[in-house]
Amino acid sequence: MTVTDRTAGQPPSNPADSPGMHEASRREKLRKLRELGVDPWGTRFDDHAPIGAIRAREGEITVEPLAEGQRAPEQHGPKVRAAGRIVLQRKKGKLIFLDIRDWTGQIQLFVGRNQVGEDNWALAECFDLGDIVGVDGELKHTKTGELTVFVEKLYFLTKSIEPPPEKHHGITDPELRQRMRYLDLAYTEGVLPRFVDRTKIVASVRKTLGAQGYVEVEGPTLHGIAGGAAARPFKTHHNALDIPLFMRIALELHLKRLLVGGMERVFELGRVYRNEGISQKHNPEFTMLEAYQAYGDYRTMMDLTERIILDAIEAIGTGHKIAWGEQTIDFTPPFARHTYDELFAHHTGVEAADAAGVKKLADSIGLETAGKHPDVIKNEVFEARVEDALTGPVFVLDYPASICPLTKRKADNPAVAERFELFVEGMEIANAYTELNDPDLQEELFRTQLEGQKEEDSMAKMDHDFIRALRHGMPPAGGLGVGIDRLVMLLTGSQSIREVILFPLLREEQRR
Q: Cβ–Cβ contacts within 10 Å for residue 279, how many?
């Protein structure tokens, strides 16, 4: 018998899941499975190999020389056991071709009625797209060279009651993909590998920090005071203590307390929550890395940031040049380093020290300037005119001190804060300081920042315990924050933060 496959002739049809297919047909097959004495929800299926590992055994297939009278050479391949979800299906007489997929890859199955016997054939006729099945068989090639498991025995592992998306390549509507992420992972090409890469990136971050002597901790997610960043928090209430609480907006202040306590290299990878807008770059719930190193400064953290990113790139194997939309981002080290003032002048044509010129520019682009500190105006111009032009990766150094209340000032120029931000494709990826450890100056800066704050905004209350901790002595230190979701976006070539968060926040579903 000559075996062809789905690669020959026309693209495969999926008659079992035509647009007219509905739940009743699948439930009928569910009934037939039970009549056959088969549990449609499966059981333990030991000793199966990942499909990727099965495909890697292709070199074990041997071909005997073509004997006289033979139409095709005889093949011998390794015996394999596989499991996965049916994503393609084609029946032709006494033959069924299936593609099954697991999280390591996809492979074709050949089910021949004569080869598997009547019991297995009856089982195969209950298959639908989306079902999860297991097989034992021999790994060989079809006539057209398709790597295929020639099935000897079938196992039914789970029935899919709901039909999958009509087109095997997945769902096209972005909101549906995010709401029904389970289908997106199962059927949209490249989605599952992207999220696997996310886990590799996060694991790499932990490995890099561990190799540098950092210890990982878990701080509280419920805070009595929303501090450590300028953002609007989510509010909640603890009934037993009858106190208001906030979902944390940053990790910073508790980690600095640990520096006071003697934990000299410390980090946390955790969720933070900000009650703000949703966009391609923002989700109200996101993952943040914060790391603090005693006796370091912002340049220490710059080197660490570069090491974290380069190690993450190596972990997912993309190479330093990564396609991102129509652009290519070159992460070849060392990353560029420029001062805030240099970049401001280059991209606006106005010197950063020229307060009158900066205000005139701000007015011309429609920014509100009345009653604002000159540095605040300058930074709003920077955000509006400079950040989007920073294709990067580029470290922006030495910010105006007045907008950095948690940052140490330069000894030779107190108007400048020892702070950097890392920008790539107009997005801030990392933010780092030489940490301010002068308790009196910190308290003064907090009080200045509190002036004019709205009650619902963060940092509307003084964190007196943090000031008290500083009075007990926090060593000079460097501190770093990295937006993990944005980093994953860039390293996986994703255009939206919602494509790298498994379950982004969505509006309430409107059900009929």
A: 10
Instruction: For residue 393, say if its preceding peptide bond is cis, omega within 30 degrees of 0.
Output: yes
Q: To the nearest whole number, what is the mean pLDDT of the chain?
A: 90
CA atoms within 13 A on the CB side of 277: 3
> 91: which 2 tokens?
């029946």
Q: Specify the pTM.
A: 0.88
What does DSSP assign to residue 94? Answer: T
Mean pLDDT along residues 8-31: 62
379-426 pLDDT, tens digit per residue, is 999 999 999 999 989 999 999 998 888 899 999 999 999 999 999 999
Which tokens go with 240?
A: 């037993």
SS3 267: strand
Count the helices and strands in the chain (H runs, E runs). 14, 21
Give the CA-trace dihedral at 253, 275, 401, 262, to 10 degrees.
10
CA 306 to chain centre: 19
- CB-based contact 405:447 (threshold 8 Å): no
| 205 contacts 199 by C-beta, under 8 angstroms | no
Are 124 and 134 spatial neighbours (Cβ–Cβ below 8 Å)? no
Report the C-alpha gap between 469 and 442 in whole angstroms. Answer: 11
The closest alpha carbon to 482, from 238, 349, 311, 260, belongs to: 311
Dump pLDDT digits (tens) for 180-201: 999 999 988 899 999 999 999 9
215-216/132-141 β-pairing: unpaired
Q: Are 511 and 322 in contact (CB under 8 A)?
A: no
d(CA 86, CA 97): 10
Angle at 176 between CA 170 and CA 178, to 5 degrees: 95
Q: What angle do CA 277, 282, 382 make, to 5 degrees?
A: 90
Estimate the crossing angle of helix 464-471 against helix 252-260, to 10 degrees. Answer: 30
- Among residues 114, 495, 90, which one has the least CA distance to residue 326? 495
